[in-house]
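S., here's the first fold you wanted:
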Amino acid sequence: MKMSRFLKLRTGKKLEVWPTYYAYNRTLAISLFEEGEPYGNLTCCLDDAPGRNCAYIDVNNMGIDIVDVLEEEGVGKRTGKKRQSGYVVYPEFSFREEVLRDCTNENYEQYLTWQEALGEDEEYLTVSCRSLL
């Protein structure tokens, strides 16, 4: 089943999904656009390296209901893992790779290249540090 590169919110807004990565730790980032203009970031960058196609959902700015919308739209599912930063607890979400590939761009392709360079049980920061040794 081919997924749309758009996410429809309960408010009726139709947002374009743009997968990319955080330069800090090369983890998956998802930006949202409305009619070509930046709307916000669906994900947030925390001091953690979630697995392939996983990211923490920015419930602080997007609201907790966004996680339900993502699951209802078939974008992926919650992993059950959570990470606290300040007063907010961010849920980790596993995005379906076929959904992200439908939205693919050069930034997501670079993210996948880095993912494939990882050894078993390695995280981004260990790989980049390993090359310095």
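And the second, which I think is the more interesting of the pair:
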Amino acid sequence: MTFFRVPALIAVSFVFAGCTLDASKLEKGISEKLEKEGLHIERVTCPKDRKIKEGDEFTCEGTEKDGEDFTVDVTQKKGGDVSWEMQEKFLPVSKVKNHIADKTGGKVDVDCEADAFIIAKGRKITCKVEVDGKKSKIQLTMNDTKGDEISLTEL
């Protein structure tokens, strides 16, 4: 399976009052991008009153709605623009669906309550699966933080 990191260049300026980044606007931009990738975001928190300084690096912290925490590395660019990248990888459910389809050769539908999940060692996710009309449940178990080892177990 293939796993992803979320890099993003925010092309909008996050300048507030001419000298500090607008943290709430940055938080909203990060949340919206991650939601578009299929993650369900509860919150993102970035440092307040961050001075505008090209090359400045800092982190924002976030939490998925099911409680999994993540970290976003942020770098200031020219004029208050920023680029950012989530430290953790995530697993799109579409990759699980494709993996099961490849193994079974059948028509597959997978419902995991979200379209993607942050990979964290020990994390378990239960999904409903239908293969050629037969319904069951599976549990995904993340055995490492890189996403190299994920077990699928039928429940």
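Why I say that: Residues 23-36 form the longest helix (14 residues). The chain has two domains: 7-86, 90-154.

Talk tomorrow,
H.
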